[in-house]
Amino acid sequence: MTTLSAFRGFTNGLPEQDQVMPVLFIGHGSPMNGIEDTEFSRRWTQMAKEITKPKAVLVVSAHWFTKGTKITAMDFPKTIHDFGGFPQELFDVQYPAPGNPALAKETAGLLHSAHVELDHDWGLDHGAWTIIRHMYPEADIPVLQLSIDYTKGPQYHYDLAKELSALRKKGVLIIGSGNMVHNLRMVAWDRLNDNEYGYDWAKNINGKFKALIQDGDHKPLINYSTLGRDAMLAIPTPEHYLPLMYTLGVKGTKDNISFFNDKAVGGSLTMTSVKIG
């Protein structure tokens, strides 16, 4: 069992380093990706091998929607099974990564535009652990979660994210976890395992999102309601889309853009993911 003493070194703060960490937006999809060997989970594993091992991971997950902004600040965040109707095997998963209370406090201090509450009740929800257990299966890297304030719009979250940029210089991997296109009400459940099946509107708007991201044209992405009917079908509620704002908001002027897991599933979902840097 991992003990707190094993991670005491993380409480002394993280020094700046020469290399700037990349930033990821990851389409997490079904919680079953957390335990299954899929093309998506395999790519998460491969991504961890392609980038520098981070000093810590900060996740903005679609599944922690709060009034106000919170950050996990406990020594060891619990594994949250925030779903229903799945096999017991999924509920049995524990991901015992440490937290980093000192980094949580430092991060809260960076966010001048928001009062950030240090939270000791949440943990790692499936938007975080289903991905990270494939990337870092040893659970030897501190993981924190930053909540999404549901009272605020995309521009607020995009601007708030900019204040997190300094973390990239300290070896922190920032991950936005959601889905660009996420309309559960229109899912073709009989085609959920077909990783090539997307409705025309879903593929069209996903392509538009990608083009805007590639071009660095963030304004239409922030004001996505101006992109028409397809965008509103893709984002009937904002929680899975807003993590993208935290990824785009910390993009530097020299960062390269690449896409991975660029597939549609179930007609009305896309797993399209973005690496910045």
UniProtKB/TrEMBL annotation:
It is an enzyme of class 1 (oxidoreductase). It comes from the Bacteria. GO terms for molecular function: ferrous iron binding; stizolobate synthase activity; zinc ion binding. Its cofactor is Zn(2+). CDD domains: 45_DOPA_Dioxygenase. Its EC number is 1.13.11.29. Residues 37-253 form the Extradiol ring-cleavage dioxygenase class III enzyme subunit B domain. InterPro entries: Extradiol_dOase_DODA, Xdiol_dOase_suB. Keywords: Dioxygenase, Metal-binding, Oxidoreductase, Zinc. Belongs to the DODA-type extradiol aromatic ring-opening dioxygenase family. NCBIfam families: PRK10628.1. This is 4,5-DOPA dioxygenase extradiol. It comes from Flaviaesturariibacter flavus.
